[in-house]
Amino acid sequence: MIRARGANSPRRPPPANAIASERDPVHDAAMDQSAKAALWIVATGVIAAGLYFFRDSLTQFALAMILWFAISGLARWLDDLSTRIPRWVAMPVAFALVLTLVAGIGVVVTRNVAEIAGGIAGQGARLNDLVADIYRSFGIAGPPPTVDAMIADADPAELLRVIGAALQGILADTVFILIYLGFIFAAAAQFPAKLDIIFRRRAQRDRARMVLTEIRTSMEKYLLSQTIMSLLITGLTLVTLLVIGLPNALFWAFLIFFLNYIPTIGSLMAVVLATLAAVVAFPTPGPVIAVAAGVGLWQFVIGNFIQPRFTGDSLNLSAVVVLLALALWGSLWGIAGAFLAAPMTVMLMVVLAQIDDARWIAVLLSADGKPKIFQRRIPDVSVSD
Predict the structure, then answer these.
(1) φ, ψ for residue 78 (rounded to 5)?
(2) Is pLDDT of 199 > 50?
(3) How far apart are alpha carbons 118 and 97 in whole angstroms?
(4) Across-strand partners of 317?
(5) Which residues lie across from 366 on neighbouring strands?
(6) Strand (E) or helix (H) holding 44
(7) Residues 246, 248, 254, 258, Cα dihedral to 10°
């Protein structure tokens, strides 16, 4: 017996595909975007916390990576410079040159710190007058502090303990950096074979190699050009300071060499520190003005006219991004973070440019809005091709 379907007959539930078809695609897209944004926020927070809490080990590893880029780039440059220098000779030569430069600068800095401190203590009376003039000029209430009193209040034993702990920390960091550097050199030789295992498809392998090559090329170009420009600025600054007669001129020149690796802020810090050293060393304003003008002149001329033509836009980072990167990495990793801010941000930009959902971040980080994107498509015939 067939029963006619009436008005009160129970209705069957619609199939699942019918329910899915009734969904609003705009609403679903908005939900997907919200979920992705929340995921990015959570991931950023977790990564930032990890970078901060593991900053000691990560800083040592990052400095070892920068040294590896510098040594590898110098070895490749020496290999390309002359056909008579084989690769197996260029690498040890580059390794020795880079480590000798870093060690020499460290020796000069540590040997001159005590002499500079003694010079400041010997200028106590004149510095007292200078501090008093500053207080009167700005109308600061209260008696100005005296350098003699600050030196007398200092505990020599505590000062020696602090200096000893700092030197011990630097020595420990140097040992770990060299250990990381050795392992990086050992791992670099096996890395191409590992890429073949990780990425089984040829298109994926080629894209990964292009990204890594771009990171390596950017780092090597940045470090090589920055080192050459820093050496040029250091040499001219050293001659200028020696002509003026600033004490410990070699120390201040090498300090300026390091500061030039900090974009934008480093040049300003170099001028300020050299000027303050001149204020302590000279009783008249003439040499102080000469030091400030001489150091500032070389920073301005080379940084704005020679370096852009020599290096081009090797970083392709926005000026605002550079300042934000300095603040961010400096707050996470201290002084080492300020030195590593530019190269670390370049690495981040290159990687983000290859991710579809994060490419807009790379566009914002870049100076021209055109980060390099590698989307080479190669047909995959088989999995193990």
Answers:
(1) -65, -40
(2) yes
(3) 33
(4) 366
(5) 317
(6) helix 25-53
(7) -80
